[in-house]
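Batch manifest, entry 17 of 40.
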Amino acid sequence: MHSRPSLRRTLLCAAVAASLSGLAHGQATTGRISGQAPVAAGETVLIEGSNGLTREVGVDSRGRYTAEALPLATYKVSLKSGGNVVDSRDNVTLRVGATTDVSFDAATAGAGNAQTLDGVTVSAAALPKIDVASVASSTVITSADLARLPLERSAEGIALLAPGATRGISSFKGAFGNSLVSFAGSSVSENAYYVNGFNTTDPLSGFGGVTLPYGAIDQQEILSGGYSAMYGRSDGGVISQVGKRGTNEWHFGAQVLWEPEFARADARDVRYVHGKNAGNIWQRNEDNREWTSTVSGYAGGPLVKDTLYAFVAVEAERSEGNNVGDANHAYNTKYTYKDPKWYAKVDWNINDSNILELTGINQTHRTEGTKYNYDYDTLSTGSFSNVDQTDKTHAQVYIGKFTSYITDDLTLTALYGKSKLTYYNEPAQTGVVGPFIGGLDQQNPAITGGTPITNHQTLDTVDNPDHQSTVRNLRIDLNYKIGSHSITAGIDNQDNKDYEDGTTIGGVGYELWYGHQDPQLNVLDSPLVDKPANYPGGETGYIGWFRHYNTLATVRVQQRAQYIMDDWQVNDRLLLSLGLRNDQFTNFNPSGQPYLRLGKPQWAPRLGFSLDVRGDSTLKVYGNLGRYYLAMPASVALRTSAGSLAVNQYFTYTGIDANGQPTGITYIKSATGGGVSPNNEYGQAPDPKTVTSKNIKSEYQDEAILGFDHQFDPSWVWGAKATVRKLRNALDDVCDNGTIKRVAQADGYDLDDLTVTGCYLSNPGRANVYSLKNANGGYTDVTVTNDDFGFSHLKRNYYGLDIYLSHPFDGKWSGKVDYLYSRSYGNTEGQVRSDTNQGSVAASRDWDYASLMDYANGYQPNDRKHQLKLYGSYQIAPEWMVSGNITVQSGRPKECLGRYISNGMETDPAGYGSYYHFCNNMPSRPGDAGRQPWQELVDVSIEYRPLWAERKLAFSASIFNLLNQQRPDITDPVSGSNNVVADGFERVGAYTTPRYARFGITYDF
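Output type: structure tokens
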């Protein structure tokens, strides 16, 4: 029989375990307190919070108690017997979603002594936070961590501390200019964002979401899997923020941050690798400069003590600088970015049983600038060109949440929130009459003499300035504890509407592009566009094309879900979490008709366990199995069901005039006799019954996690976690209508009686049933199998083994070392394609035609085989603290794409040019071309809090990328053809950010 641990050790184990805990219910905004007390008649536990909340719960016959759904705050927990307090614990701080164990020792309770848990200060420190009362896999970062660590001031920058989180490619940005994150091999559009329990995910494409001012974040939780049935709509990761709230003491504070230009290192220039310009500068980055200032403040406290509280935070970030465009966009743009935010929260303790929370969030991202001509021969800035386009994205979010502790065992929570986003833009004032010209470096040098000729038009595509989107989210949860079961049931409904979303080409309504290819190859094979060599001026492969593009639509998405789950405490050591969720998704076209209805039961089981091996919270084994469904965002309709136009008309030329316009034009023969669209986007509005596969199913992923946490010393915790993810189903457009026609004809149908047009939203890698409009006004169903298309089966697999060692902050220092070995491989990245910068959700080149998928199985763009993360803080003296954050990771896989090889000959069966998985006349899978270099990024900071200012005043300095390591993150994979290598092949798409510094002054009262 094991001896009972001392009270001090038991409480410390519990506190550390709680600080490392994952969510009991993912994306939660509250925590819980539970524990053990000596069994006695009439015992209760009194819980009193710094937020004025008071709850008293009973102790059951086994000596256990639990208080659910407690707002994040600091609490005093007292054991009462016969109405008198016999023992208490003070300064108990909750962690979001975690269970904090506060137990009472029989000896001290019986003696009526009061002990305080004031010697244990535990910090989240970005560990996989797992407590013995939950089965989730998450990381929680507190406001104290944010104040100490040198981090990028964004939700995504914080999320990168989590195992398996990697930065997405730099060309993918959110609506507010934010970078994006990939979790455990998933694409950047598959994540979910929450603020105070409300889903703020970008409704258009899933690229990021609305987030809090940095100083208003109380805790940020990052889930990389394993969350409960209460939440879904993500098969990547979850970023959930909980904002600060007022307490019974007034607090004020302000901060000024400065990232000066003089402390920023020069960025590396990007150079051509191949072609006539090999070695020359493609993009001049060394001339780029930037400085950023941030001013923020907060105030919070009681409006009515113990009853009504308020908290307000504001933040104004401003960046100014210049950016030199590439050789095709030779301008030096002097820009200004403005990013103001505010956050307000009111908490009303109506009585001891009912709480009302009201939250308001406002976020804006505004960009404006002025363009000057830039001379790449002299590397100098010239005369004024024009005022650049002005963009403004503005979000307003309002949330109401009501919590009612109906009884000790029955808790009701109801949340309703609404967000409105406006996307305003003013086109560039160029004063130029003429089209935007692209591919200037591909103009025929025999005509230009090697110096590009342009009209200086910078106005390209124009977004509709009246574009808006709205999101409404209703959640109702009812939790009931009966015996050893904690049962929760509820609904999670969301409605998204995208108003007047559209893009067209500005100026004269079309773009002009120049290109260069092998003159003896067709420009396109399907639809056919002839060889340049057959036309005057095309003998050396120089061509041009006029591009027409237009989308405009109002669409909406309706999402519904119901769930039930049971946290079953089988015995003192084993917890089972059993859950079932059912999701329904419906996407509507501009006419309000559903074109994608996924209303059949989509059962998502969530099964988990947590085993407290020793019974003292020092060794825990946990695991879970889960299925996660993902809805299609609103923007999918623009290219699927709204009648988009995307047409190119190709030509050869014999001259170029002084404005960059081609002369001596000869149009190249095409299958249509004019412009062509490989995806059949000719502007016609499709029948909503024909744009998707009739038997289409939602994207979903299965996941399994097994891990352990071991506290081998009161100050040290280590653990390991294995994760396996398999994407079981995806949605993407399939454009091979030639195969659909052949199958219909083989089935005995007359093609003259059927309409087969455009691309179809399908489940690639599976058999799909297409409804084709027939001559009788009805529809004919045609089943096309995977073998008919010639596709391989869909694959995206991920496995990872994470090992960590952590020392929680003890008032002196904290540290964590985390190593992840992982693999992400298959033939699809997911909803987007990072290697070729395709951000159109579910409309990438993948799966359009079978030839594009041959040899596609390989390492995915977000694969990082090795990731080592180290971070922590050290209080070197009472007034001085140093902190660091180091990331060492292997590079992304490289790709080499070229023309399709058939019988030893280069062809273009899909009409997509050099985007097949062939290179140098050989198959080339993702990763066969090698990998990008390793990255070793070191961020450090130092803080001085003078004692003469009672540590309320702080001065800080941080340096990011201390070693100024600028290594390629991604390179252009398009190689061209065997005889004519593309000039852009292997050109660097982005380097890691150069070294820069941040200085700050903070005052808290």
